[in-house]
Amino acid sequence: MQILLTNDDGIYAPGIAALKHQIQDIGQITVVAPDIEQSGVGHSITFSHPLRIREVHLNNEFIGYGVRGSPADCVKLAIYEIMKKNPDVVISGLNMGANVGIHILYSGTVAAAVEAAIMGYPSIAVSFEITEQYADVQEAAKVAKGVIENIIKHKLPRGSLLNVNIPSRPSNQIKGIKVTRQYARDFKETFDRRIDPGGKAYYWLMGTDKSIHHEEGTDISAVNEGYISITPLRYDLTDQSLYKKIEGWDWNI
Question: pLDDT tens digit string along 144-166?
Fold first, then answer.
C-alpha cells in the first residue's frame, strides 16, 4: 500500500514523526510536508513564487521531502512530481490541536486532505486535541493508527475524506468512536488589543474555549465528551436547499 503522509505543522513537527513511526508497517510511506509551520493557511496554493523541494534529514536519517509552500501545494507536488506510484490513501496529521467546527475551514491539515480528495484519492485528516492536562503525542499516534487501520480495512471510496479528532486524554480513558457532523456555529473568538513600544495598537487573535460549546451529534461535542470524532467531509460547498429556492426566482433582467 502506498501512503502519502503530510501535515500543516511542518516536516519537523513531532506529530508527523510520531504518526509515521506508528503506521510504517501498514504500507510504503512517502512524507511530503511544508518546510515551516503552515497552520491556519486553509486551502491556499502558491502562484506568486516557484516551489522548491528538498530532501530532509534529521540525525543523519532521511525523513521526507520539505516544500516551501502550503499543505495543498505539498499534496499536488507529491502526487505529480515526487511519488513514483500514486497513493492508495493520503493521510494528513497528526495535527497538534483539534480541527472541529468552523476551524475546519481554516485548517491546513484538513485542506491537504481535501486537496487529495479533489484529486480523486481517499484521504484522512487526523488531529489531536492537545491541552495542558494531556499532551502525549506518542500515545495519540498509537490511537490514530488503530483508527486509520480500521478505515483502510473498509476501503474508502475514491475522492472521499474523513476528518478524525482524538480527545485530550489517555487511550484507556477514551470512551469510543462517534461518527459526527461538523459543528457549524461560531466560536465567538476575540482579539486582545495591545500597545507596542511606539504607542501604536496591535491585535492578537485569542483562542476560544471549545469545551463550552455543545450540540449533540457534532464533532466538538464528541471530543468534549471524550470520544474520537469521525466526520465525513465534502468539498462541494453548494447550498442545495438555497439552490432549489433561488432556482425558481424570476431572473429576467
Answer: 999 999 999 999 999 999 999 99
pLDDT at 211: 72
Q: For residue 184, what pLDDT band results from cuts at 50, 70 and 90?
A: confident
Residue pair 34/133 in contact (Cβ under 8 Å)? The answer is: no
CATH number assigned to the domain covering 2-187+214-236: 3.40.1210.10
Dihedral of the CA atoms 30, 36, 37, 38 (nearest 10)?
-80
Dig out the grid coordinates for 126 from the structure. 487526523
Q: Where are the domains of the chain?
A: 2-187+214-236
Strand runs labelled E in 59-138: 61-67, 89-96, 123-128
At a CB cut-off of 8 Å and minimum separation 6, what does 215 contact?
Answer: 183, 185, 221
- Reading the block at residue 52, the C-alpha cell is 522548491
The stretch 51-65 carries a mean pLDDT of 96
Q: How do 227-233 and 176-179 pair as beta strands?
A: parallel
- 17 and 7 Cβ atoms separated by less than 8 Å: no
